[in-house]
Amino acid sequence: MKIATPSEVFGGEARVAMTPDSALHLQKLGYECLIETGAGKLAGYSDDAYRAAGVKVVEDPSALYAAGDVIAKVRPPEPSEVAHLLPGQTLISFFYPAQNNELLELARSNGANIIAMDMVPRISRAQKMDALSSMANIAGYRAVIEAGSNFGRFFTGQVTAAGKVPPAKVLIIGAGVAGLAAIGTATSLGAVTYAFDVRPEVAEQIESMGAEFVYLDFPDQQQDGAATGGYAAPSSPEFREKQLAKFREMAPEIDIVITTALIPGRAAPKLWLADMVAAMKPGSVVVDLAAERGGNCDLTVPDQKVVSANGVTVIGYTDFPSRMAAQASTLYATNVRHMVSDLTPAKDGVIVHNMDDDVIRGATVTKDGEITYPPPPPKIQ
Ligand code: NAD
């Protein structure tokens, strides 16, 4: 069978779903690999690098789609891309079925089998395919780099002949995958780092990475808002008030805020309010990784960098992984080839779409003309 990767058509998207290295692995699984001309260019992979790895470079996207038994891409397909898909063909990409009902119906109606990388169950066995985590890791790292390039000072404290420099104070709100990556990056650059999450179980992880967990003065010292499956639920009004009061108290001292707080199925909670931005020092920076879901900061404008009246830069970019396209493509392509590996038990270049496998079942959103989303809960953890 053949696996084909087209160029991403979403404006500004620089990632690619197949790298020369992942193609070598896919060939060992028995597949022929095809890529559209120039598809890897923005991620740093030339057509010649693909050819050297045994990949066939195809000029015409229609011919590429027609040739592939499996299409591997990054972004959810545009309707024009779904139109290329054929009955029985398999598409592997991000899909976000809960937000893309019409797209789901379109894919169902043309009979393609869709594997959504964002629906891979977050269980230990599937970590190698967990593209949400690999992209969130990059976003957390890049958020700190972006903050640093907009912050006119060092992260680390210094004593120099030209004067004493205090370390930057960084607050990370939300310590999931992206938040923990941001903590690791900020502390390794020498910042004094604080982090807050509604899930009390992350306190240990935060502290093990060198940051200080921000506790609230709340009955029995428990954070509030942990839900099942390691995700957050909305906080109670009393807890939220305590949380906002704490942030208000910290705002004048904090140089950089990185917000990553998300609650499944809901708009991002507003946690860094306009008055907190107004209380920050000029030159401070807020990076809002929740911008795509409405933002954690009142001043966030998705995809833009704005400067508040008191000189605080608020960054709402929604394309952090694409801003590190080489790294993001390497990790995403690895996630994809692990998914293909699980779909190819005999390593003979033949897809076996086993709906009894929890991971494959969980990620499959259309199959044989049926919508198979949402999946039943996984049997194993
Ligand atoms: P996410 O992107 O859904 O949310 C980011 C963080 O925001 C979470 O830590 C959440 O608790 C926090 N948050 C929500 N509301 C908040 C508020 N009001 N104030 C402060 N913080 C708030 O989370 P994620 O990064 O996708 O991770 C979700 C969970 O999945 C975590 O427990 C993570 O460890 C787990 N996970 C498990 C695996 C696995 O293979 N076992 C893999 C990846 C992630």
UniProtKB/TrEMBL annotation:
Q: Which keywords does this Swiss-Prot/TrEMBL entry list? A: Cell inner membrane, Cell membrane, Membrane, NAD, NADP, Nucleotide-binding, Oxidoreductase, Plasmid, Translocase, Transmembrane, Transmembrane helix
Keyword Signal on entry:
no
- Provide GO CC annotations from the record: plasma membrane
Chief place where the protein resides: membrane
On whether 4Fe-4S is a keyword of this UniProt record, the answer is no
Q: Which Enzyme Commission number(s) are on file for it?
A: 7.1.1.1
What is catalysed by this protein? NAD(+) + NADPH + H(+)(in) = NADH + NADP(+) + H(+)(out)
Q: Where is the protein situated, by its record's location annotation?
A: Cell inner membrane
Q: State any single GO MF term.
A: proton-translocating NAD(P)+ transhydrogenase activity
Where is the secretion signal located?
none
Tell me where in this chain the Alanine dehydrogenase/pyridine nucleotide transhydrogenase N-terminal domain is found: 4-139
Tell me the superkingdom of the source: Bacteria
Say which enzyme class the record assigns: translocase
Question: What GO terms in the biological process aspect are recorded for it?
Answer: NADPH regeneration
The UniProt record lists the Alanine dehydrogenase/pyridine nucleotide transhydrogenase NAD(H)-binding domain at 148-316
The way this protein sits in the membrane is described as: Multi-pass membrane protein
| Family from the record | Belongs to the AlaDH/PNT family.
Role played: The transhydrogenation between NADH and NADP is coupled to respiration and ATP hydrolysis and functions as a proton pump across the membrane.
What's the protein name?
Answer: NAD(P) transhydrogenase subunit alpha
Q: What is the lineage of its organism?
A: Bacteria, Pseudomonadati, Pseudomonadota, Alphaproteobacteria, Hyphomicrobiales
